[in-house]
Amino acid sequence: MQRILIIVVFLQLPLHYNAWDIICISFVFQEVSFDEAITIIEDMRVLLKKKQVAHDDKKANCITEGYTSDDKQKSLAKARKDEEAAIAYVTEAIATLKDEIAAFTASIAALDQAVAEATELRTAERAACAATMAQT
């Protein structure tokens, strides 16, 4: 019965009062015996210990998750940097290959022109040689 009264008193007090204040008020009004107050305090101690354990577990989990997130973020940043380096390397290789293809295309065109000129020269020489053979 007295515990119910303490809870009712607790619910009616402003928010800035805590459980210790309630126990003191109960002693003043002689609604709670010393043994009951000790029991209430022990119950509060057990409850606070449970809350502290839960809080410590949450804190440890947050720290672990934070380290995991940091490690993952670092590995992703490194992977991104590696990928950007690979992209830059491939882009540079593509530009080099384009230049080489252009140079090869120009050399093939020059070679085709040289072959055409040589063919024309040999055709003219053959015709001259055939004309000379025909005269003799």
Which percent range fits the helix content? over 70%
Which structural category fits the helices and strands?
A: mainly alpha
What is the makeup of the main sheet? none
- Count of domain modules: 1
Instruction: Report the radius of gyration as a whole number of Å.
Output: 48 Å
Question: Segments where pLDDT lies below 50 for 5+ residues?
Answer: none
What letter string, H or E per element, gives the SSE order? HHH
* Total helical segments: 3
Average pLDDT for all residues: 80
Strand content: under 5%
Number-wise, the strands total 0
Alpha carbon gap, first and last residue: 148 Å
- The coarse overall form would be rod-shaped
Q: How does this model look, in words?
A:
Helix 2 (19-28) runs antiparallel to helix 3 (34-135). Helices cover 90% and strands 0% of the residues. The chain has one domain. It has 3 helices and no strands.
Secondary-structure blueprint of this entry?
Elements: H1 2-12, H2 19-28, H3 34-135
Helix pairs in contact: 2-3
